[in-house]
Amino acid sequence: MAGLELMSDQGYRLDGRKASELRKVQARMGVFAQADGSAYLEQGNTKALAVVYGPHEMRGSRSRTLHDRAVINCQYSMATFSTGERKRRPHGDRKSTEMSQHLKQTFEAAVMTQLYPRSQIDIYVKILQSDGGNYSVCVNAATLAVIDAGIPMRDYVCACTVGFVDETALADLCYAEESGGVSSLALALLPRSGQIALLQMDARLHQDHLDTLIEAAMTACKGVSKVLDEVVRQHLQEVSVLSGE
User: 206-232: string of b/e by CB count within 10 Å (b at 16+)?
Assistant: First the structure.
C-alpha cells in the first residue's frame, strides 16, 4: 500500500520528481571564518552546516595518537528546531553517536590521513533542517568543508540514500519516503575509483533487489559529485578574483 502512495501511475513521486531524479543541491564553501574549513549545503529541504578544524596536534588522551596517520574525529548533531518535534537532542544520544561513527568511517576511507602522522582532524556537522537523507547530506557538506580546509582527499566522497518501491529504485529519499515503510540504504562512494566508503541499511531487503539499489545509489552519488565539483570550481574562481584584487 505504501508503494501506491509514494509513486503515481505516471511514475512521479510525492514531490514531483522521477524515480532517479535527485533533489536540488545548493552549497557554499567558506561560510565560517573561524574554522579551517566550512560549508553549508542544502539537498532538497535538508540543510546542513559542516565545520573542519585541523590537522592539529592531538588533544586529550595521547594514547589515541597514531604514529603513521592522523586521527579523524567526527561529531554529528541536530539543531533543536531541525524537525517538527521540539525535543532535546543531546550530543551523546545513541543516534548521534552512531551517525558520528558512520561519518568517521566514511572520511577515513577518503582523507589522506597518512600525510599527517600524530595529528587530529575534527569534523563537526549539524543538521539545521531535516527532511530525509541526513547522513548523505552530512557527508556531502563535510566533503566540501574538508576541501575548503585544504586537506588532501583521494577523491570527493559523495553519499545518497535510495529506496525500493513497486520494483523501482528511488534516488535521494525525502523524509515522507523514508518514513513510508520503504526498504532503503545509504551509500557513500568515491566516484572515480568506484570504491564504496560506507553502506548502511536499516531495514530488510530481498537479496534480488540489492544489486539494483546499489547501482542506483552509485549512479546518484556520481550525479552529486558533479554538483560538488561545480561548487568547488565556483568557489575557487571567487577566491582567485578576490585575491587578484
Answer: eeeeeeebbebbbbbbbbbbebbeebb
**d(Cα 114, Cα 69) in Å, to the nearest integer?**
4
Q: Cα(144)–Cα(123) distance, rounded to whole angstroms? A: 11
- Phi, psi (degrees; rounded to nearest 5) at 157: -115, 120
The amino acid sitting at 137 is V
Q: Which of 132, 198, 140 is nearest to 171 (CA)?
A: 132
The SS3 call for residue 243 is helix
Q: State how far Cα 33 lies from the chain centre.
A: 22
For the full predicted model, state whether its pTM sits above 0.90: yes
Alpha-carbon separation of residue 20 from 32, 119, 144, 175 (angstroms)? 33, 41, 24, 16
- In single-letter form, the type of residue at position 114 comes to Q
Give the span between the Cα atoms of 61 and 74, in whole angstroms. 16
Contact (CB, 8 A) for 114 and 68: yes
| Partners of 125 in the β-ladder | 50, 76
Distance from C-alpha of 177 to C-alpha of 160, rounded to nearest angstrom = 14
Q: What is the DSSP letter of 162?
A: E
3-state secondary structure at position 203: coil
Contact 38, 30 (CB under 8 A): yes
pLDDT digits (tens, 9 = 90+) for 62-102: 777 888 999 999 999 998 887 766 555 555 688 899 999 99
Provide the sign of the torsion angle of the four alpha carbons 43, 239, 76, 135, taken in this order. positive
What residues are paired with 26 via a beta bridge?
Answer: 42
State how far the Cα of 139 lies from the Cα of 143, in Å rounded to an integer: 6
The residue with cell 552529486 is 224
CB hemisphere CA count around 180 (13 angstroms): 22
